[in-house]
Amino acid sequence: PVLTTGLEALELSAANFYTREILGDVKKEIQGVVALDVINEENISTTVVLKVKECDRRQHTYNVLYDRNTEHMECECSRWSSEGIPCRHMFCAMKRVGLQKLPDSLLLRRWSKDAKKYLDESSAGGTTQDREREFLMRYGALSVAATWMVFLGAQDGPSFHDTMNEVYRWTQTLEQKSDLKR
């Protein structure tokens, strides 16, 4: 691959794992590190808490947590949990703590070049870790959609009441489906 982001080790790690299509999205996130600053770094036991600020937006700061032992990383922007792609804030944190490759905890098999190789395994139920990641991805996507729905529903009284009625209706429907599965 042609390395273009300036963070060659992380970019090469991504290029060796991701499909071309996903790599394009990941490279955009790596390139976005240029517009970020780490304004605070705090070590709590084995966890590093980094406060990352977007240079062009004064009010936007995001906390990124990185556990040095497990190599688990989280960002409050929720891009990872909703899309399964590490965000620019995570790449900024990786740069700051000196990672030379993407942590395994951030690599989803579904985006890998070898995804077809894992097809048989996933059809047999996959691993517990895969099921947890799939749950987190669905949860993140629903959270983003629900937040937007809440914002729109809170605009005025009629919208609020319509939204509440639909939330109640959907909740009842989902609870009934859940009861049927048991």
Secondary structure layout plus pairing:
Elements: H1 8-17, H2 20-31, E1 36-44, E2 47-54, E3 61-67, E4 73-75, H3 79-83, H4 88-97, H5 119-123, H6 128-153, H7 157-181
Antiparallel strand pairs: 1-2, 2-3, 3-4
Helix pairs in contact: 1-2, 2-4, 6-7
How many β strands by DSSP? 4
Widest sheet: strand ordering: 1-2-3-4
**Could you give the order of the helices and strands?**
HHEEEEHHHHH
Mean pLDDT: 84
What percentage of the residues does DSSP assign to strands (E)? 5-15%
Largest beta-sheet details: 4 strands, antiparallel
| Tertiary shape | globular
Which class do the helix and strand fractions yield? Answer: alpha+beta
Termini separation: 49 Å
The tally of helices reads 7
Low-confidence stretches: none
How much is the radius of gyration in Å? 19 Å
Determine the fraction of residues in helical runs and give it as a percent range. Answer: 40-55%
